[in-house]
Amino acid sequence: MLKLKKTKHTYECGTDEAGRGCLAGPVTAAAVILPDGFKNNTLNDSKQLSEIKRDILKPVIENDAVCFGVSHVFQEEIDEINILNASILAMHRAIDKLNTLPEFIIVDGNKFKPYNAIPHKTIVKGDSKYLSIAAASVLAKTYRDAYMNTIHEEFPMYNWKQNKGYPTKAHREAIKKYGITKYHRKSFRLLPEQLKLDI
């Protein structure tokens, strides 16, 4: 059973990102403050949920949350500052969008940079322990997937609708065959034999 909160603060915000290991597209983060008494038996780490369940949960979270924010950090910025910094930046920007200032921030993973002067705690596998982080993981994933589905229309040969930019065999084959797009992260090892890729 996921816990609602880590602390006794009224406004505790959970934050998480999606798309860190992808070869293309943004890293997307969400921040969510859930109300006291919030319960949901389906909500879990987005990776444990089917796409259908995530899509059902998205409006529930948006409707029931005290507030939420979602932010993309795109490939150009990822290439400039690296994926870890981009992930943290996306979380900070998602928190920027909250219309209630959090008193405490719980973060999925083990890396974060202080946000203003608000105390925070990093929690490994936090998305399977706390509801607000799980909620943030669902929003980050659904918003990012929706974005990848949109750019899929522009470059259908990479099948982003299916792989969402992750390094699947088919995605790597398409890079080998067609080269890269403006959505690919040039700082990533796009192919095992990158040296042969003329970028």
Shape: globular
The first-level CATH class of the domain at 12-147 is given as Alpha Beta
Tally of alpha and pi helices: 6
H-E string: EEHEHHEEHHH
The mean pLDDT is 94
Strand order of the largest sheet: 3-2-1-4-5
Low-confidence stretches: none
Q: What is the terminal separation in angstroms?
A: 48 Å
- What is the third-level CATH name, the topology of the domain at 12-147? Nucleotidyltransferase, domain 5
DSSP summary, beta strand count: 5
User: What do we call the CATH homologous superfamily of the domain at 12-147?
Assistant: Ribonuclease H-like superfamily/Ribonuclease H
Radius of gyration: 17 Å
CATH architecture of the domain at 12-147: 2-Layer Sandwich
Strand content: 15-25%
Backbone structural class? alpha/beta
**Percent helix among the residues?**
25-40%
**How many strands, what sense, and barrel or not for the largest sheet?**
5 strands, mixed
